[in-house]
Specification:
This protein is mostly helical. The protein has one domain. The chain has 5 helices and no strands. Helix 2 packs across helix 4. It starts with 5 loop residues before the first helix and ends with a helix. The model has no long low-confidence stretch (mean pLDDT 76).
């Protein structure tokens, strides 16, 4: 953990908790269980809560990766290339009807 930026170290336990929760719920949502039908168990508020949790983890990890970019091989250039690629994928996806 000492390699992580100081600003994210104290958030690791919460990020781990959220990641475990999302993994567990993803399994149930995809496969259900003997006594659980996902479409009857999960509701819109569950989806909104999971989405908000995933976004918060994504924001924290993105920040941490950005703050470490100068010390990574390829650094800012690698991040810029990834963002350009994501933009192209988004544009292509929007054109698919």
């Amino acid at each position: 953990m000492e390699r992580l930026p100081a600003g994210i170290r104290e958030k690791v336990p919460e990020l781990v908790r959220i990641s475990r929760m999302l993994r567990r719920d993803r399994e149930l949502a995809f496969y259900g269980s003997e006594d659980l039908t996902p479409s009857k168990f999960y509701h819109r508020d569950d989806v909104e809560s999971a989405f908000a949790s995933a976004r918060s983890v994504h924001a924290e990890v993105s920040w941490a990766m950005g703050s470490q970019a100068g010390s990574m091989p390829g650094g800012q250039n690698q991040i810029a290339a990834q963002r350009r690629q994501e933009g192209l994928i988004y544009k292509r996806a929007r054109n698919i009807k």
